[in-house]
């Protein structure tokens, strides 16, 4: 096998995927054209079609990777038997906020596309039921037997994700500038575990 040619092919394929990830995330599936992706990647349309036969095929690959990134950010922490509940909340909030600061369009993109075809994307999401068998949920039940762990999971994820969904609105309204938002999110890493702990103590 020609290693140099293989490296070039991998480089071109990754360049296309990076461009597709950016364009799909910003525009969504329906508004994206393959020529938009080719232009973003700096290649011609024929080359894009050589690597990925259709927009749908390329989109499926990007969606699977985005789901794995979005949900995979917290899975190790949820299932870690060695860390305390408090440490898990700190780890999860920090990882999610770091992920979303690096990929601010990711949550709105996933929500929009899942609403478009929810059943279609279940395999890409994976077996989310395993979350309810995780060390995190067991620790929650031991701490608050009468509480529904789903509330705490939704609150924890909502506190991390919702500011990024609202970010375009806040910036359009000139409520927060970009650097101010990033500082708020860094503060939020420390505040979210405190808020969740308060919920545990009062609920």
Automatic annotation (TrEMBL):
A single GO molecular function term of this UniProt record: transcription cis-regulatory region binding
UniProt keyword annotations, A-Z: DNA-binding, Transcription, Transcription regulation
InterPro entries reported in the protein's UniProt record: Homeodomain-like_sf, HTH-type_TetR-like_transc_reg, HTH_TetR, Tet_transcr_reg_TetR-rel_C_sf
Cleaved signal peptide residues: none
Domain HTH tetR-type: 10-70
PANTHER family found in the cross-reference section: HTH-TYPE TRANSCRIPTIONAL REGULATOR BETI, HTH-TYPE TRANSCRIPTIONAL REGULATOR RUTR
Name the UniProt record assigns to this protein: DNA-binding transcriptional regulator, AcrR family
Organism (species): Flexibacter flexilis DSM 6793
Upper classification of the organism: Bacteria, Pseudomonadati, Bacteroidota, Cytophagia, Cytophagales
């Amino acid at each position: 096998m020609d290693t140099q040619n293989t490296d070039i092919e991998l480089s071109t394929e990754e360049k296309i995927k990076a461009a597709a990830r950016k364009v799909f995330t910003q525009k969504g599936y329906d508004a994206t054209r393959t020529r938009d992706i080719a232009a973003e990647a700096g290649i011609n349309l024929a080359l894009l079609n050589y690597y990925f036969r259709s927009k749908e095929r390329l989109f499926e690959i990007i969606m699977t990777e985005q789901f794995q990134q979005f949900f995979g950010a917290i899975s190790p922490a949820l299932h870690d038997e060695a860390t305390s509940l408090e440490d898990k909340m700190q780890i999860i909030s920090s990882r999610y906020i770091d992920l979303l600061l690096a990929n601010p369009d990711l949550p709105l993109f996933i929500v929009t596309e899942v609403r478009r075809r929810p059943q279609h994307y279940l395999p890409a999401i994976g077996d989310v039921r395993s979350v309810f068998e995780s060390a995190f949920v067991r620790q929650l039940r031991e701490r608050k037997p009468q509480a529904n762990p789903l509330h705490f999971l939704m609150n924890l994820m909502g506190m991390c994700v919702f500011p990024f969904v609202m970010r375009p609105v806040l910036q359009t309204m000139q409520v927060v500038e970009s650097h101010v938002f990033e500082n708020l999110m860094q503060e939020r890493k420390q505040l979210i575990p405190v808020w969740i702990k308060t919920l545990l103590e009062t609920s």
